[in-house]
Each structure stands twice: as structure tokens, then as C-alpha cells.
């Protein structure tokens, strides 16, 4: 077996082991599952009530925001806790690369958020009597958006602290503004020029655009650009995460 | 080839040099104690040897694999049991072991076979499917050690393995460690329990302020400190000023009162015994017990790490250098 193939195989095996461990410890818990499923419902009430738009048109934005929060919320909590309990040292002393640690942590959040996205879609379609125009684009959107934002959460957790609050504060400094500059609640066309300029740098913009395309075929950038932008964001977040976790060993 | 070879290992945190170019080698199958006071550089050294912390300069080789350049190959050969029992409380003992085995990329059948054997060895099999968070401190420690052995390591790093444990867990862990040593597993042990190092280790290194103060077999280290030999004596009655009077005896470096006994430190016990005979006759006192003792490893440790015990300032050159 070539050396590089064995290395990749080991990385994937270790990442999958970490993802399974995280799913078991942090995600598949009644409190997490219930709050994650209630989150889009509460968001729907907050933004649909009193607005003239048809309820069905809110689904893409609702899904993009649900994926953002579901995917990026757990690792910034679990990694500082694992630093405090020294279980993170177990990963550092194991014969696995930092690449595998970052991928494994991100994978668990991505799988969880994708599952929440699917469940939210099914409920929304039944309750709001809406339809999906392109299921493949929707599923691809779920996978890429979830992995993008779970990697973002893992990246913020690289901040070398055992204090969960510190990581969450930093994360929210970025996460909350994303809601308002990504066309989710304010259409991009209605934004001022500077807002539109910033929006193109937000992965949530492309996630929302891809969801819109999947649901009713409308798109600002086109699905190819949306997918490419999300893949690029994943690569950048992964690379930055690997760099910062490497540095934290110093 | 040595199991562990350390050459000029240095770790710098900003302006602070935590480990200052240390050198040592651990032979295959050797049980090597690494002792030092808090803040001496023990944990930093272990973290560098196990690849958890980057090395500033120098090299560390595990079975010939450079931990900085050939990190994963070196790590595959080692088991690490840190001072804190870093198990996943939410997972069962079984799941903790299976997860650790997966990190080592072992085959499923091998992981399960090793997990069963280790749970049995450490007396955890009966409760292996309960969340580990409900385990006692001793059980958690045993599980941590089991997790460090799931890959059948050639080198085992043990950081304070028995600290604060009940007698049963302590004895079980000691038995397992001795059994590993018999199976030619190299053991790198750090402990505050000097007596544990004395009875378990083939050699010990004493690190202080980031440098190695001495490396040798425990008995050889003790022999280098003749001045730490002592005579322990108790009398039928204790009189005021007795401590000061004993200090004036020729060849006595220091005297300590320990309960109803006096310990007289000396490099020449026969001479002091002779003086004591004369002294007791002159003072009309009767000794109840007299024992001559060599230095304990703890006394050597305290001496090497800068704390004074029973000796007047004395610098001596040993195999380990200036001490």
C-alpha cells in the first residue's frame, strides 16, 4: 500500500472515530436534539409573523440559519471542555494527524446539522404545503453548508482556552452579523452597496442562494458558484484550523 | 538502539526556558524513573517526548523514530498514561477502549480482544458497559492505564500512576507495571513517590530547574552521598540542650530530632558511633536503640533539588556531574 494512501486511510479512520465519539457524547442527547429541532420553529415564528411574504418563501433562509447554528454550536463548547478534562490531550498524543482531529470534529457537527436540516425540511414541507424543485441541490447544499459552518465552529475552538464562554463570545461576534449581511432576512438587492460588497465574502450568502435555487429555482450567483464558494470556504476554514491547532502545540 | 534517546532537548516559552538542553537515553526494557519537584520540567519533557508539545531545539527518538519528524511512527510505538485520568466520562469503559484502539488504527477484532483482556486484567469487566463517570477514582485510573496499553506499546509513559489511590488500585497497577517490565516493555515513569521509584526503577533521572541533576541506579545515587549516611539513636530520657550537644560531636554534619529519636548525619558512621559511646557515658545517659542508615533516595532527591537535608554545604562530583 503506498505511503500516502495509508496516511489518508489512517486520517479518515481517525476522523470517523472522533466524529462517532463526539456524536455519542455531545450530539445524540435528548436536550440537544429537542433544542435543535425547536430552534428553526422559533426562528420561523420570529421572522414570519407579521410579514407579508408567503410562509414557503421563508424556508430557504430558515434552513440556512438552522444549519449555521446547528453545525457551529457544539464543537466550540466540547473542545474547551475536553481541554479542561485533558481528553483533548488523548487526541494529541495518539498517532493521528492534526488534519484528522480537525476533520473529525467538523464531521460530527456536519452530520448532526444535516440531519436537523432534513428533519426541518420534512416538517416545513408538510406544515407549509411547499415543494422542493431540486432535491439533489438541496442535499448537496445541506452537506456543504453543514460542513462549512461546523468547520468554522472547530476553527474558533482552536482559540487556546478552557473557557467555553470565551470561544462562544468570539464565535457570536462573527456568527450574528452573518445573519444580516447574507441576504437571509434582508434581500441582497435591498442592501446598500457596501453591504452587498461584504455579502460576497459570507459563506451564508451562497448557502442561502443554493437553498433558494433548490426550492424555487431562483438564484443570484448560480448553483455552480454557490457550490464552489462553499467548497472554498470549507478548504480555507480547514486549513486555518489545522494551522491554529498546530500552533497551539507550541 | 535505545528505546528513548534524548539529545539537547530544549523547550522555551517566550523568555522562559522550561527545559534546558537535556540529554539521556533509556534502554530497551528498562524502567526509568523521572523525578523532580513541581515546575522542574518533568511534564514539559513528557509532553515533548509524546509529541503533544513542539520541541524548541534538540531531538527525541523513540525506537529510532524522531518525534518531531517521524511523529506518527514514534507515537504508534508508545502508550501514554497522563497524570489526570483523561477518560470520557459519558462513555462506558468498553467504548473508551474501543475509541482509543480506533485512534491507533487497529483492526476491530484486535481492539476487541485487547479490550476484553485489559478489562479483565484491571478488574473492570463486570462494569464495562456502565458510563465511566460513575467509576471510583481508582477504577478511572485503572481504565486510563488500560487505555494506554490498548495498542500493546513498546514504550509506556506513566505520569504519577498511583498518586492518591486506594491500596487495592495501587497494588494492582504496580503489579501490572512490574509484569510489563518483565515483558520487556520500556517504562518511563514520573512520580512524586520516591519510594515507588526506588523499588520500581532500574535507573532514575532527577531533573531540577530544567536541567538533569543526576542519572543513575537508585543505589548508586545513594552511594554518591556519603554525607547523607546517618545514625538514628534514642535515649531513655531527653534533656534540655541535648540536640545542640549532639551537634558538637566530631564528624557530625547535622542532627535532626524525629519523634523520640535523634538522627545524626555523617560521612563517617563508625567514628560517630565511637563518639556517641563516650558522650553517653559522660552524660550518664542510656541509649535505647541505635541504627545506622544509608541515605534514602528521598534524601538524595531533596539534596539534588536544592533543599537542604542534614548536610552542610558540600559540592561533589559524581558520574552525573556536579551535585
Description:
The complex is a heterodimer of chains A (250) and B (323). Chain A is mostly helical. Chain A has one domain (3-248). Helices cover 78% and strands 0% of the residues of chain A. The longest helix of chain A is centred in the middle third of the chain and has 31 residues, at 98-128. Chain A is globular. Chain A starts with a helix and ends with a helix. The mean pLDDT of chain A is 91. Chain B is of the alpha/beta class and 323 residues long. Chain B has a domain at 226-294: Alpha-Beta Plaits (2-Layer Sandwich), CATH 3.30.70. Helix content of chain B is 34%, strand content 28%. Chain B is built from eleven helices and 16 strands. Chain B has helices at residues 42-49, 71-76, 93-103, 108-121, 137-149, 167-182, 194-200, 218-223, 242-247, 269-283, 297-304; strands at residues 4-13, 16-26, 31-35, 57-62, 65-66, 78-81, 155-159, 186-190, 203-208, 211-216, 229-235, 252-258, 261-266, 287-293, 317-318, 321-322. A six-stranded mixed sheet of chain B has the order 6-7-8-3-9-10, with helices on both faces. In chain B, helix 3 packs parallel to helix 5 (137-149) and helix 5 packs parallel to helix 6 (167-182). Chain B is elongated. Residues 309-323 of chain B have low confidence and may be disordered. The chains are: A mainly alpha (250), B alpha/beta (323). The A-B interface holds A 10, 13-14, 17, 20-21, 24-25, 85-87, 89-97, 249-250 and B 50-54, 71-73, 75-76, 78, 80, 82, 84, 86-91, 95, 99-100, 102-105, 147.
Describe the global form of chain B: elongated
Q: Any low-confidence stretches of chain B, pLDDT <50, length ≥5?
A: 309-323
Q: What average pLDDT do the residues of chain A reach? A: 91
Proportion of β residues of chain B?
A: 25-35%
Briefly note the structural class of the backbone of chain B. Answer: alpha/beta
Rg value of chain B: 24 Å
Order of helices and strands of chain B: EEEHEEHEHHHEHEHEEHEHEEHEHEE
Q: What is the rounded Rg of chain A?
A: 18 Å
Helix content of chain B: 25-40%
CATH topology label of the domain at 226-294 in chain B:
Alpha-Beta Plaits
User: Approximately how much beta-strand content do the residues of chain A carry?
Assistant: under 5%
Amino acid at each position: 500500500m503506498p505511503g500516502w494512501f495509508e496516511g489518508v486511510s489512517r486520517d479518515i479512520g481517525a476522523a470517523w472515530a472522533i466524529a462517532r465519539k463526539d456524536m455519542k457524547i455531545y450530539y445524540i442527547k435528548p436536550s440537544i436534539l429537542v433544542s435543535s429541532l425547536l430552534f428553526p420553529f422559533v426562528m420561523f415564528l420570529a421572522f414570519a409573523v407579521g410579514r407579508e411574504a408567503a410562509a414557503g418563501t421563508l424556508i430557504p433562509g430558515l434552513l440556512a440559519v438552522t444549519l449555521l447554528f446547528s453545525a457551529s454550536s457544539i464543537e466550540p463548547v466540547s473542545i474547551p471542555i475536553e481541554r479542561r478534562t485533558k481528553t483533548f490531550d488523548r487526541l494529541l498524543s495518539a498517532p493521528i494527524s492534526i488534519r484528522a482531529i480537525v476533520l473529525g470534529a467538523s464531521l460530527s457537527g456536519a452530520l448532526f446539522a444535516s440531519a436537523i436540516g432534513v428533519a426541518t425540511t420534512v416538517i416545513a414541507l408538510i406544515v407549509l404545503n411547499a415543494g422542493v424543485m431540486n432535491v439533489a441541490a438541496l442535499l448537496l447544499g445541506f452537506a456543504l453548508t453543514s460542513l462549512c459552518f461546523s468547520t468554522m465552529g472547530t476553527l474558533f475552538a482552536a482559540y487556546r482556552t478552557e473557557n467555553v464562554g470565551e470561544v462562544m463570545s468570539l464565535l457570536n461576534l462573527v456568527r450574528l452579523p452573518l445573519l444580516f449581511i447574507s441576504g437571509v432576512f434582508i434581500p441582497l438587492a435591498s442592501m446598500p452597496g457596501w453591504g452587498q460588497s461584504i455579502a460576497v465574502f459570507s459563506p451564508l450568502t451562497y448557502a442561502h442562494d443554493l437553498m433558494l435555487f433548490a426550492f424555487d429555482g431562483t438564484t443570484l450567483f448560480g448553483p455552480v458558484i454557490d457550490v464552489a464558494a462553499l467548497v472554498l470556504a470549507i478548504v480555507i476554514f480547514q486549513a486555518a484550523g489545522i494551522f491554529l491547532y498546530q500552533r497551539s502545540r507550541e | 538502539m535505545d528505546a528513548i534517546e534524548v539529545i539537547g532537548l530544549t523547550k522555551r516559552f517566550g523568555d522562559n526556558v522550561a527545559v534546558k538542553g537535556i540529554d539521556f537515553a533509556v534502554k530497551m526494557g528498562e524502567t526509568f524513573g523521572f523525578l523532580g519537584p513541581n515546575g522542574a520540567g518533568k511534564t514539559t519533557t513528557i509532553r515533548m517526548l509524546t509529541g503533544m508539545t513542539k520541541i524548541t531545539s534538540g531531538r527525541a527518538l523513540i525506537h529510532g523514530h524522531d518525534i518531531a519528524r517521524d511523529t506518527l511512527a514514534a507515537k504508534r510505538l508508545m502508550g501514554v498514561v497522563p497524570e489526570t485520568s483523561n477518560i470520557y466520562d459519558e462513555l462506558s469503559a468498553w467504548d473508551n477502549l474501543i475509541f482509543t484502539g480506533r485512534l491507533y488504527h487497529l483492526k476491530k477484532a484486535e481492539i476487541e480482544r485487547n479490550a476484553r483482556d485489559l478489562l479483565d486484567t484491571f478488574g473492570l469487566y463486570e462494569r464495562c458497559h456502565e458510563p465511566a463517570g460513575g467509576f471510583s477514582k481508582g477504577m478511572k485510573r485503572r481504565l486510563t492505564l488500560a487505555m494506554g496499553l490498548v495498542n500493546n506499546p513498546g514504550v509506556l509513559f506513566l505520569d504519577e500512576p498511583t498518586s492518591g489511590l486506594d491500596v487495592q488500585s495501587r497494588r494492582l497497577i504496580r503489579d501490572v507495571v512490574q509484569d510489563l517490565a518483565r515483558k520487556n516493555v520500556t517504562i518511563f515513569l514520573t512520580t512524586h513517590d520516591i519510594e515507588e521509584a526506588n523499588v520500581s526503577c532500574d535507573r532514575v533521572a532527577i531533573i531540577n530547574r530544567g536541567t538533569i541533576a543526576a542519572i543513575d541506579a537508585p543505589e548508586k545515587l545513594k552511594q554518591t552521598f556519603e554525607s547523607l549516611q546517618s545514625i538514628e539513636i534514642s535515649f531513655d530520657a531527653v534533656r534540655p540542650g541535648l540536640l545542640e550537644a549532639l551537634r558538637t560531636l566530631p564528624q557530625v554534619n547535622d542532627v535532626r530530632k524525629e519523634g523520640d529519636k535523634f538522627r545524626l548525619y555523617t560521612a563517617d558512621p563508625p567514628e560517630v558511633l565511637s563518639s556517641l559511646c563516650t558522650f553517653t557515658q559522660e552524660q550518664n545517659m542510656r541509649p535505647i536503640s541505635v541504627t545506622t542508615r544509608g541515605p534514602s533516595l528521598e534524601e538524595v532527591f531533596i539534596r539534588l533539588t536544592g533543599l537542604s537535608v542534614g548536610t552542610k554545604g558540600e559540592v561533589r562530583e559524581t558520574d552525573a556531574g556536579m551535585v
